[in-house]
From TrEMBL:
Protein name: glutaminase
Family: Belongs to the glutaminase PdxT/SNO family.
Organism ancestry: Bacteria, Bacillati, Actinomycetota, Coriobacteriia, Eggerthellales
UniProt keyword Cell wall biogenesis/degradation, yes or no: no
Cited Gene3D superfamilies: 3.40.50.880
Active site: C80, H198, E200
Length: 222
């Protein structure tokens, strides 16, 4: 059986575990640094609050060891906050009071935006995301869109967005797997898959199947 580690410090990790178990996986919850000693073939980074997750990862001593594994090809699925952790560049939420303030007082918004650019906690995926960028009305919404790689028969799936990050740029061979309103919402770079939406809330298994195919690939190569 494939064994998938699920980051379980904060956020929607239980929902992912349920789905992975239904699909025939064993799950290892990562709660403490010591959990990294257990064997696993893939990693899921759930939705939640990316700032809290990043702080906990650092405090628990999991950030560097996991970054090394992701960077060396461990199949990884990051959803929503998990996608933010993976992103090489993260621009601030425009509703952040300090940033909104500096924009209003006439400071060049470009400088403000640049000053607010940080690296995602892992920073392993060549994309830029903006946190909470779908606006107040659209803070949460559900839509249907095709999901799949170029050349694959696209599969239309439901996608739920909850204060989702907006993928603002995709670089260096990162592929776009799904687009909503001209904006990429699912991407893949090597063995890393990132979704702005929450596949754990939908019936469709396409996102998990894509991730588990990567996990199988690594297992058979071992
Ligand atoms: N808004 C959250 C963040 O910026 C992500 C929301 C989610 O994971 N549903 O971390």
């Amino acid at each position: 059986k494939p064994n998938v580690a699920v980051l379980a410090v904060q956020g929607a990790f239980v929902e992912h575990e349920r789905r992975l178990e239904q699909l025939g996986c064993d799950c290892t919850e990562l709660r403490h640094g010591a959990d990294l000693a257990r064997p696993f073939d893939g990693l899921v980074l759930p939705g939640g609050e990316s700032t809290a997750q990043a702080k906990l990862l650092r405090d628990l001593g999991m950030l560097e060891p996991l970054r090394t594994r992701i960077a060396s090809g461990m199949p990884t699925l990051g959803t929503c906050a998990g996608l933010i952790l993976l992103a090489e560049r993260v621009t601030a939420d425009v509703s952040t009071p300090s940033l909104a303030g500096s924009m209003q007082d006439g400071t060049a918004s470009e400088a403000a935006a640049e000053g607010s650019m940080t690296r995602g906690a892992f920073g392993t995926m060549p994309i830029t995301v903006r946190r909470n960028a779908y606006g107040r009305q659209l803070g949460s919404f559900r839509t249907l869109a095709p999901f799949g790689d170029e050349g694959e028969p696209p599969c239309v799936v439901a996608m739920t967005f909850i204060r989702a990050p907006r993928i603002e740029s995709v670089r260096d061979g990162t592929r776009t797997l799904a687009v909503v309103d001209d904006v990429p919402v699912a991407v893949q770079a090597g063995n890393q898959i990132g979704c702005a939406f929450h596949p754990e809330l939908e019936d469709s298994n396409v996102v998990y199947e894509r991730f588990l195919a990567l996990v199988e690939g690594v297992r058979t190569a071992d």
